[in-house]
Amino acid sequence: MTRGNRSLIYLIVIILTGIIVPFVIWGARFDATLSLEGTRQWMEGYGSWAWAAGIILLIADIVLPVPSTVVMSALGWKYGWWTGGLICAAGSMLSGMVAYAACYWVGRPAARWIAGEEGLRRGEEVFERHGGWLVALSRWMPVLPEAVACLAGLSRMRRRVFLPALACGSVPTGFVFAAIGDLGQSEPAWAIVLSCFVPVLLWLGAARVLKR
Does residue 111 contact residue 120 with C-beta atoms inside 8 Å? Predict the structure, then answer.
C-alpha cells in the first residue's frame, strides 16, 4: 500500500469517526425524540415554516445524529408525496452542498495536515474517476452521505460533476421516503430497493450528458 493510500485511509477514518461518535453518544436520544410522530409534531410547532424546520433538520444531519429518513417520511406525512418529496430532495441537496462547500473552502488545511499532499492527491484521483458514482449512491446509505460529501469537497471534486451526482442520489431518495410517510408505512423494504437502483439509472444518464 502506497503512502498516499494510507494517508487517504487515515483521513476517511477520521471523518467517519467524527460522524459516528455523535450517533454513539446521542443517537438513542435523537431516535426517541425524532420518531415519525415526534418529528411531525416538532415541525408543526413552526406553523407555516414547518417545511423549513424539516430542511434544517436534514442539514443538521451533517454534524448531529438526526434520523434523516424519518424526517423525510414526516415531511411526506405532512405535505404529501409530491410537495414533501420536493422538500426532502431540496433538504438532501442542501445538506450535501453545505458539507461539500465547508470542506472545500475551510477543511482543506486540516485535511492536508492529516493526510499530507500525497493523501489529498490520491483523494483527488479517486473522486476524478469515481466521484459521481460515490456521491450518487451514497445518498441512500446511513452515515456515508455526509462523509462522501465532505471528502468530495476536500478532494476539490468538480462542481459540474458533484451537483448532478448529488441530485441523482438526493431526488429519488427524497421522493421515496416522502411517499413512505404519505402512505404511513413504517418498514418500507421496497424504499431501499428504489433508493438504491434509481440513482444508478439517473447517474448513467447524467454521466453520458456530462461526457458530451
Answer: yes
